[in-house]
Amino acid sequence: MVIQLKYDKSLQINSLSTIMQGENLVDKLKIYVPTIYEDSDMSKFSANLFYKDSGNSVYSEILESVDSDKENFLEFVLPVTTAITDIAGKVEIWLEFSYTNTDNSSAPERQVLRSKSASFEVKPWDNYELATNVNAQLSVMQETINDLNTKLDVLTALVTSTVVSA
Question: For the chain, how are helix, strand and coil distributed in percent, rounded to 5?
Fold first, then answer.
């Protein structure tokens, strides 16, 4: 999914794939921001992505820039995780950039740019709840197997030490 900050502060979303509920670390949000916005060098700013899921919970992610494949744009890449895809429905996103300018005045000035919001859909997966329950059951089974392996190691050590001392 490609997101671009436009000069009117709107976000243009071009979705190349469907994001399904419960997906993790497969899709990425590629975010492009003009290197210069008005007179501000955006490479000096820290960047955050905020998103609100369909359950109205708001989250934020710190964005780190990567080498951009578009001239005159900064690029940020955020892997889509289950934090974003846990709940099916509309995901509303917006960006915030901030920079404390100490160059031109005796008192530092905090510059903030906020984008307008945009949204995309996380499509429901009918078997998501079932898969979540199965994963929880597999986790319990794995803990039991780990516990049994630990007990087996202890018993093996006891038998080995008994045989050696006899």
Answer: 25, 40, 30
Distance separating alpha carbons of residues 95 and 2, to the nearest angstrom: 14
The answer, as to whether pTM is greater than 0.90, is no
Domain match, 79 and 109 both: yes
Q: Distance between CA 99 and CA 61 in Å, rounded?
A: 17
- Number of structural domains, the chain? 2
Domain that holds residue 146: 126-166
Residues of the chain short of pLDDT 70, as ranges, are 104-105, 127-138, 163-166
> Phi-psi category of 22—alpha, beta or left, where left has phi over 0 and alpha has psi -120 to 50?
left
Q: Three-state SS for 30?
A: strand
Tokens of residue 144, six digits: 């039991």
A 10 A CB-CB count for 131 gives 13
Per-residue pLDDT, 114: 96
Q: Give the CATH number of the domain where residue 119 resides.
A: 2.60.40.3350
